[in-house]
Amino acid sequence: MIELLTPAEMAEADRLTIAAGTPGIELMETAGRAVADVVARSPLGTRIAIACGPGNNGGDGFVAARILGGRGYRVQLGLLGGLDRLKGDAALAAAAWRGEVVSLAELDFHGSGVIVDALFGAGLDREIGGEAARAIETINRSGARIVAVDLPSGIQGETGQVLGVAVRATETVTFFRAKPGHVLMPGRVHVGRLTVADIGIRETVLERIAPKAALNRPEAWLPSLPVLKVDGHKYDRGHAVVVSGGMTQTGAARLAAHAALRSGAGLVTLASPPDALAVNAAHLTAVMLKRMDGADGLAALLSDRRLNAVGLGPGLGAIEVARPLVEAALASPAAVVLDADGLSAFKAEPQQLFARIAGRPAPVVMTPHDGEFARLFPDLAALPGKLDRARQAAARSGAVVLLKGADTTVADPSGRAMIADNAPPYLATAGSGDTLAGIILGLVAEGMPAFEAAGAAVWLHGEAGAVLGRGLIAEDLADALPRVFTRLFV
Ligand SMILES: NC(=O)C1=CN([C@@H]2O[C@H](COP(=O)(O)OP(=O)(O)OC[C@H]3O[C@@H](n4cnc5c(N)ncnc54)[C@H](O)[C@@H]3O)[C@@H](O)[C@H]2O)[C@@H](O)CC1
Ligand SMILES: Nc1ncnc2c1ncn2[C@@H]1O[C@H](COP(=O)(O)OP(=O)(O)O)[C@@H](O)[C@H]1O
Ligand SMILES: [K+]
């Protein structure tokens, strides 16, 4: 598991390490050296401008300046505010710097090959304005290689949001663990290439801190991926149901059904309204087809407990049609994956949806994009942090919430969360989300716990996109899954 630490959790990691006997200045020395090592990939003779802020982020900049100067680089250091404002470890680091200190405005950004951004890191707590904002705008226009210390200045470590203005770094060097703001948008774009440096903080501090967010990597969910038995049977792998829309909107459900079969369900049945049976029949092969007469028909189908997971929403139709179907699914003992129209059906009364989720024995996974999210959680949609949005929505609804985008975030009601950074932008194509819902459904049907299944599906979907490359369409994604699974196990 690759934990993501909020700035507050990172401060706690520092505190625990210092309390265990490592002086703060030693951590700062190691941090500054890690920055210097990254900067030193540029050849000797490169002019380096180091912009230092008034806190410990600036302290790291002073250390890097001293080390780079010692290695023969031409270093110019500029400070925001006076030297007398520096405190603690930053003051110690500044005292060890023998070179000149100019003001930020005097730094020659345009004449430098590398700019080190040590203005603000974890301590950024308000919008940047004035001299610092002007410096950041100049840094961004300079054309130099920009190495940010800990976080690009202006990016909030917890949310990835820009506070006023933010450095667009070529590379960022952070310490111990990445922060949510390194992977959440728009932070991820400002970070550039990320290096996570070991500065001597022991892994054991994580037991005390118990961080609840992680990067969505296989380590986060692979232990929960069902292991197939040598003598296994298709009936051991679950039977998923996908609900089709009416005659003119059947494709989305078929995409989901196909993906559910690819991702793991032993059997998949498409439940189809009578008017859509012929069109569905013409397009299905391994996926089975069953006639479904409205919500009562779906309830009857799901009364067979072997059908252990149901997905609905893609192409499901208008509220009058969709809502009773979702209610029937939620009244059944099956796990439920709710997407698209299945979510929008409750926009007038989201509490009705949450009330039906509460207390049901099997899990519910909701997969909104931002628009669908705003319909169900209008008050949460304005929160600045995607992690916070997903977590609060999960806590309120009782469902696992998967909030889509380039930084898809999955959260469960207890606050556990994973953030993905592997999705290529060509996943933004019609039907891609329907496929994602199907991948989750197949994994849940196969017996994977809902939170892990949602995380795994997001990762698999992203990798499938990366394997296929530009030009992919939603139909291709599920068919790329065998290749992605193969890579997972070699
Ligand atoms: N605590 C430690 O032991 C370690 C800390 N490290 C560094 O310390 C950094 C955190 O240091 P700090 O907590 O001192 O915080 P920062 O140095 O990130 O910033 C805090 C300072 O900036 C000011 N400030 C915040 N937002 C501002 C704004 N919008 N405009 C103008 N001024 C603003 C604050 O008043 C304060 O003076 C980390 O990002 C990391 O770079 C590393 O040296 C590793 C060890
Ligand atoms: N810029 C992007 N980078 C990576 N993935 C993206 C990006 N934009 C959208 N996606 C992904 O593409 C999928 C789109 O889903 P959705 O909006 O439901 O579309 P549809 O309803 O057409 O299937 C989601 O998995 C989302 O996370
Ligand atoms: K910085």
UniProtKB/TrEMBL annotation:
UniProt xrefs under InterPro entries: Carbohydrate_kinase_pred_CS, CARKD, Nnr, Ribokinase-like, YjeF_N_dom, YjeF_N_dom_sf
> Which is one Pfam family of this protein?
YjeF_N
| Residues that, per the record, bind AMP | 404-408, 433
**Catalytic activity entry:** (6R)-NADHX = (6S)-NADHX; (6S)-NADPHX + ADP = AMP + phosphate + NADPH + H(+); (6R)-NADPHX = (6S)-NADPHX; (6S)-NADHX + ADP = AMP + phosphate + NADH + H(+)
Positions that bind (6S)-NADPHX: 56-60, 121-127, 150, 252, 315, 369, 434
Cofactor requirements of the protein: K(+); Mg(2+)
Q: Which PROSITE patterns match?
A: YJEF_C_2, YJEF_C_3, YJEF_N
Annotated residues for binding of K(+): 57, 117, 153
Membrane-crossing ranges are: none
Residue span(s) of domain YjeF N-terminal: 10-207
UniProtKB keywords: ATP-binding, Isomerase, Lyase, Metal-binding, Multifunctional enzyme, NAD, NADP, Nucleotide-binding, Potassium
Bound cofactor: record note: Binds 1 potassium ion per subunit.
Q: Name one GO biological process term.
A: nicotinamide nucleotide metabolic process
Under Enzyme Commission nomenclature, its number is 4.2.1.136, 5.1.99.6
Q: Does the keyword Membrane apply?
A: no
Q: Which parts of the sequence belong to the YjeF C-terminal domain? A: 217-488
SUPFAM superfamilies according to UniProt: Ribokinase-like (SSF53613), YjeF N-terminal domain-like (SSF64153)
Enumerate the GO terms in the molecular function aspect.
Answer: ADP-dependent NAD(P)H-hydrate dehydratase activity; ATP binding; metal ion binding; NAD(P)HX epimerase activity
What NCBIfam families would the database entry show? yjeF_cterm, yjeF_nterm
Quaternary structure annotation from Swiss-Prot or TrEMBL: Homotetramer.
Q: Which family does it belong to?
A: Belongs to the NnrE/AIBP family.
> Its function?
Catalyzes the epimerization of the S- and R-forms of NAD(P)HX, a damaged form of NAD(P)H that is a result of enzymatic or heat-dependent hydration. This is a prerequisite for the S-specific NAD(P)H-hydrate dehydratase to allow the repair of both epimers of NAD(P)HX.
Protein's name according to its UniProt entry: Bifunctional NAD(P)H-hydrate repair enzyme
Which gene is annotated as encoding this protein in its UniProt record? nnrD
